[in-house]
Amino acid sequence: MARRLFAAAVLALVAAAPVRAAEVDALLPAETESVMFVNVKQILDSDLVKKYALGQLKQALQGNENQKLLKDLGLDPLKDIDRVTVGSWGKGPEDMEAVAIVRGKFDPEKLFAAAKDQAAKNADKVAIVEEKVGGKTYKLVKITQDNQPKPFYVAVADEKTIVGANDKKLTTQILAAAEKGTTKPSLKKELAALVLKQDEKASVFACGLAEGKADNLPGLNNIPGVNPEKFQKGLEKLKTFSMTVRLTDEVGLEVVMGMKDADSADDFGAEISNLIGTAKGFLPLLTQNQPNLKPLVDEVGKTLKSKVSKNDVLINLKLTAESIGKATGAGD
Fold it and tell me: What pTM was estimated for this model as a whole?
C-alpha cells in the first residue's frame, strides 16, 4: 500500500512539474541581443508535421540531385539534425551580426569534402577560405547568396556541432570556444535569464532584449486600428520580447512583451487589444476568394486573444489540425 501511495505521489509531482527551462548555448557570443531556437527533432516528431508535411519533405529530399548531395554530405536532415540556435545583434538589417549553432550528428570529413566539391563547381557561391586565431589556422566554407548583404562562414566544430556566422572572425572565435569545451555561457545576464524562462520542449522560441530597438518605428500610420502616437510610446517602454510556437496535434503560439512597468503594460495592452479587434474585423475578407480558408479564419477569430499580466502583455493563438487540414486541402 505504501509503495502504491509513493508511486502515485511521484506521478502527481511529474504531472504538476513546470515546463523544462531552456539551456543557454555556451557558444553564443556575449554581444548577442536576441536568440532563436528551433527544435528540429521535436518538429519532425510532432503529430501535425507527420500528418501534413513529413511526406512532402521526404519526397523533396528524394529527388536525384538532392539525394546525391545528401549522400556526398553524409547527412540525413530528417534524422541527423537535432536543434538549431541562432544569435543576433546590431542596429538594423544592414548592420546585423548573426551566428548559428547546429547540433546533431555529422561526418566532418564528408561535409568538408562536399564543400570543396561545391566550391570547384560554383566558385561564385561557395569558397574555402582561411582565418587565423591565436596562431592556429581554421578552414571555413564561405557561402555567398544574392539576397544577403554579407556572406556566411560555416565550419564543422566536431561530430555533433556545426557553427557559422556572417563574419570570419566570429566563426573562428566560436570554433575556438568549441575546441576549449566552453561550458559557461557568456550572454548578458538579462538575456540569459530570459532564455532560461523559455521551454526547451517547444518547437520554436525566440526572445531578446528590446529596449531602444523599437524607437521611431516607421509605418505605424499605415496600420488600421493603431493610434501611432500611443503605439510608439508603448514600443519605447518595451524591454523584452519572447515568442513560443508549439507543434503537437495542433499549433500553439504565445507572444510575451515585457514592459517597463505595470502602467505601461496596461496602456500598451489596450493598444494591442484594439489592434487585434481591428484585425479580426478584416479576417472574413480573406475567405471571399478562398472559401477553403474559412475554418482557419474562424478559428483565428475565436482563439486570437491578448491580456495583461503584471508587467507583461501576452498574445495567444491556437489552431487545430482539422482547420489547418481543411485550409490547405490536406484534410480532404
Answer: 0.88
